[in-house]
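Hi all, long-time lurker, first post. I run a small reading group and we've been trying to get comfortable going from sequence to structure in the token notation. Rather than ask abstract questions, I figured I'd post a concrete chain and ask someone more experienced to write out its structure so we can walk through it together at our next meeting. Sequence below, copied exactly:
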Amino acid sequence: MAFTESDIQTALKQLTDPNTRKDFVAGKSVKNIKIVGNDVTLDIQLGYPAKSVWADIKALVEAHLRTALSDAGKIDATVSSKVVPHAVQRGVKLVDGVKNIIAVASGKGGVGKSTTAVNLALALAAEGARVGMLDADIYGPSQPMMLGITGQPVSKDGKSMEPMNGHGIQAMSIGFMIQGDDAPMIWRGPMATQAMEQLLRQTAWDNLDYLVIDLPPGTGDIQLTLSQKVPVTGAVIVTTPQDIALLDARKGLKMFEKVDVKIIGLVENMSTHICSKCGHEEHIFGAGGGEKMCADYGTELLGSLPLDIQIREQADSGTPTVVADPEGAIAKVYKQIARRVAIRVAEMAQDHSAAFPKIVVQNT
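-- Answer (accepted) --
Happy to help. Here is the structure in token form:
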């Protein structure tokens, strides 16, 4: 045998994962290397959902090893993804059936937060993850309409509610409980925060890799309750390039930092407008604001989306862009954002609490 497992590890240290920008060994993705004669088999286990690029990564790894191992015979790499739980704020009780919670927030309304949240959730699901959506915008729930879900949840055990299902993701919203689309939620802060907690804790989430929470805009009671009582893996801030929106986005970002919730990154909506008649592209809300904010706070610009009528029309019709036009240019941007979110989460410290046995002391 002209090469060893160590040679394969050394070769893969020279190959960078195009998504994480780290080599596969440093990313702890290389598993189960086996050498039989001159044939090699190995597993590449990614820490983020990436179903759409598994074949590309398989081809990349096999081609690199063929070049690095001149004496190798057959080389077969099996690529898969495994999402694990990551650390949250200290002292906050975890949610049954949920590995990671991603909060999607905005400093002000009207920046496309809910549309971003639903397309993020659908993009993560399209990449092979098990995903849920919690509509925590108690006063203005929009996810039932965006996901095209009608009806009310049921309870099998009389204690918890079964999540609704839309486009392959599990969903829960106060919008499922109220009668009529025009029924107002006239609640004071404590009632709204209690409702949000109940929706989260009393839903029978089924083995989710990610639960995306669509928060109401601003930095009020619900956001504070979320940071104190909900185990959040990280937050995504949504803004537009407009100065006033960025000002409020900065406040939202600082709020999460103060309550020990990690910032995953920033999504800039309405970045440019492309005229549907002549194709002229214009930065009508300003340019470069999202990049500057990310530079100021040491976080990542996850992606920029155009001001496009299709995004609005598709969300309003109950089939958001990622499912309405999965191969379109805008859906690809949402998928890139989702992959960056998942990678940023995968790079965070893992939660090892499940690895320790629970010790119960009792009198006998």
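A couple of things your group might point at:
Residues 329-346 form the longest helix (18 residues).
The longest strand covers residues 39-46.
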